[in-house]
């Protein structure tokens, strides 16, 4: 009987460790590039002039971007893509902001797109990347006020960075999560169909040992109050199954004024843009016009 119990316990332990390893690799996957990574749209397809640019992160990585110039910009908008994405995913809202008179910077976080390879993290090093993008934008348009728009992880990065960077004048956060632990726990419940607590702890420890950071330390919910009195627009789809809409409500409740909450009925994760593209672009550009520049 004892060998059977020991064997059963070891099987359960092995399964739990395997599940924790799986979660850790989803949080911080190793970048794998193929020739398809080169087959992306650029601003050229949209008839938008652009410059291929590069700048360095604080730890020396080269980050790749597209600069959409304006001779006399109403402001600068930096666009931040999601966890597994790249800068081309931001062409829709980026080109809309450019057509509204803003200079725009779209860039790849480390380990994505054309930026230098690096194990992807969940917010940790990406905050440093946005700081580098902010420094680049300030150098290119030193007189302009800077706003940031981010989707999913990029939205969470925007909140964390803006809380500590007073030269970010306005933030649009689409489909952000409240905390790394919260979103990973929801994924464990949804995908693995098991209680998340111990598995999240184990995955957090594995990520720490492999990559030197803890996703449990990423907490936009704690940072968002420090953005005020700068304006914040929070966008979320009510049918989001990856980051439940309750995250948006909690972020909004924690934020100071001025703040706006736009919930798009029936939209999934980062789906508000696709639910009504003209309305989305109009809402975001009007927000930036109000707080970065004039409508005149």
Spell out the blueprint of helices and strands.
Blueprint: H1 2-27, E1 51-56, E2 62-68, E3 76-80, H2 91-99, E4 103-107, H3 126-140, E5 146-151, H4 153-164, E6 168-174, H5 180-192, H6 197-211, H7 220-223, E7 232-237, H8 246-254, E8 259-264, H9 272-275, H10 277-292
Which features would summarize this protein structure in a list?
single chain, 296 residues, alpha/beta, Rossmann fold, 2 domains, eight-stranded mixed beta sheet, disordered N terminus
How would you characterize this protein structure?
- This protein has 296 residues and is α/β, with parallel strands linked by helices.
- It is built from ten helices and eight strands.
- It has two domains: 1-30 and 181-217, no CATH class; 31-179 and 218-292, Rossmann fold (3-Layer(aba) Sandwich), CATH 3.40.50.1820.
- Helix 2 (91-99) links the parallel strand 3 (76-80) and strand 4.
Instruction: Provide the residue-averaged pLDDT.
Output: 88
**Which CATH-level-2 architecture of the largest domain?**
3-Layer(aba) Sandwich
Number of domains: 2
Low-confidence stretches: 1-16
Largest sheet report: 8 strands, mixed
Strand content: 15-25%
Structural class determined from secondary elements: alpha/beta
Annotated CATH topology of the largest domain = Rossmann fold
Strand order of the largest sheet: 1-2-4-3-5-6-7-8
Q: What is the H/E order? A: HEEEHEHEHEHHHEHEHH
* Global shape: globular
**Topology, number of strands:** 8
CATH top level of the largest domain? Answer: Alpha Beta
- Superfamily (CATH H level) name of the largest domain: Alpha/Beta hydrolase fold, catalytic domain
The radius of gyration over CA amounts to 20 Å
Number of helices: 10
What is the helix content? 40-55%
